[in-house]
Design a protein that fits this description.
- This protein is of the alpha/beta class.
- It has two domains: 126 residues, Aspartate Aminotransferase, domain 1, CATH 3.90.1150; 231 residues, 3-Layer(aba) Sandwich (Aspartate Aminotransferase, domain 2), CATH 3.40.640.10.
- It contains 14 helices and eleven strands.
- It has a seven-stranded mixed beta sheet, sandwiched between helices.
- Helix 7 runs parallel beside helix 8.
- The longest helix has 31 residues.
- The structure holds pyridoxal-5'-phosphate.
- Pyridoxal-5'-phosphate binds next to helix 4.
């Protein structure tokens, strides 16, 4: 049977990561994957997470099945965290998922079960896995622009493109720290998007993967909360991979907001049914850790402080890179970099120039120009700036 399989495409990001693994140059720099690294280049276990794990190991209650929605306390804690204490959690339900990717897939399945062939709009460019996940679930995908010529958020263009979205279409928006561009709407832009959704009847589908790493936890959640207030129905995919550092524990949840308690109950059951046929139940460990952190005031404060420190380091890296590019004579490029938010920066380089950056300077970003600004230690920023300036000078 397997002899019949034609060569399948491989994942471009992981391909680059493997290529990096066999690069023997001492100065090589891997900025491909979206993983936070501290100043020593490590991806640390957060202290709040470590303490929660110790407490859990001491308690070591049971590893019995949790049920199709996963850990109920985790789901409640994430509803509270995402929607806020005053949020509409009375018309919402959360189902624990296999991280943010699992939430995106379950919610895509929910859309398809509700109305097969629904059109989902994604930004162009989008997170590399958005289109594949939506299409794998059987949905139609259309795109709307995201950036202007300088790489900033193009409010007028986005509103113009989304005027084409029909009632009951779904629009996938990243709640903060847009991957890959780092270009985010300001609060007035979010208000305009919420108004458009309410007026035209499309359903916002918010992907939250980097909350806490842009402008701070509350600020990064503000757009999601605003949309939740303004529209009757909404879908939210939440990842705990980056902001709890639980990448390999695969922790996240899918949230649905509906106009009635019955609609929410039905949506929750549909999500459980989808999970049942995909992987049955999500893994417990990460969810137990997050719940332990969020339910304990001391651990929660510790986590918030660590998250703030991570955000400050990312911001310091970005500011330093922009200052160095300015000093090397690339002011316009530096200005557009400085405006970006979150873990990623989009370099103003073509695919060919990204290849040169890799070949001549051993600096690995994606072919589209994305680098993980959180993946570099402060002492390597001068070499990153020199590499970018060197490639720009070769134009
Ligand atoms: C925008 C966005 N959404 C979702 C995810 C999925 O994250 P995970 O499945 O690791 O939680 C990522 C990961 O990089 C992402 O960048």
């Amino acid at each position: 049977m397997l002899e019949l399989l034609p060569p399948p495409p491989t994942d471009p990001l992981w391909d680059l990561t493997y290529e990096f693994g066999s690069d023997e140059r001492a100065e090589r720099l891997n900025l491909v994957l979206g993983v936070y690294r501290d100043h020593t280049g490590r991806t640390p276990v957060m202290a709040a997470v470590r303490e929660a794990e110790i407490r859990l190991a001491e308690r070591s209650e049971s590893k019995e099945y949790r049920g199709l929605s996963g850990n109920a306390a985790f789901n409640r804690a994430l509803l509270d965290l995402v929607l806020g204490p005053q949020g509409p959690s009375d018309r919402a339900a959360a189902v624990q998922t296999v991280a943010g990717s699992g939430a995106l897939r379950l919610l895509a399945d929910l859309i398809c079960r509700t109305r097969p062939g629904t059109t989902v709009w994604i930004s162009d460019p989008a997170y590399v896995n958005h289109r594949p996940i939506l299409e794998a679930a059987g949905l139609e995908v259309r795109t709307f622009g995201w950036c202007d010529a300088e790489g900033g958020f193009d409010a007028a263009g986005v509103l113009r493109d989304l005027a084409g979205a029909r009632r009951d279409d779904v629009v996938l928006l990243q709640g903060c720290c847009h991957n890959p561009t780092g270009a985010d709407p300001v609060p007035e832009d979010w208000a305009a998007l919420a108004e458009l959704a309410a007026r035209d009847g499309w359903v916002p589908f918010v992907d939250l993967a980097y909350h806490g790493l842009g402008d701070g936890l509350e600020a990064d959640l503000a757009a999601t909360r605003l949309l939740a207030e303004r529209v009757p129905e909404m879908l939210i995919a939440v990842s705990c991979s980056k902001n709890f550092g639980l990448y390999s524990d695969r922790t996240g949840c899918a949230i649905v907001l509906g106009a009635s308690a019955q609609a929410v109950r039905h949506a929750e059951t549909a999500l459980q049914n989808a999970a049942r046929t995909l992987y049955s139940m999500p893994p417990e460990h990460g969810a137990a850790v997050v719940t332990t952190v969020l339910e304990d005031a001391g651990l929660r404060d510790l986590w918030r402080a660590e998250l703030d420190a991570m955000r400050a380091r990312i911001e310091a890296n970005r500011t330093d890179l922009a200052a160095r590019l300015t000093a090397l004579g690339w002011q316009a490029q530096a200005r557009s970099l400085a405006r970006q938010r979150g873990m990623f920066s989009m370099l103003p380089l073509t695919a060919q120039e990204m290849l040169r950056l890799r070949r001549e300077y051993a600096i690995y970003g994606t072919t589209a120009g994305r680098i993980n600004i959180a993946g570099i230690s402060a002492d390597r920023i001068p070499c990153l700036a020199r590499g970018i300036a060197g490639v720009l000078a070769g134009r």
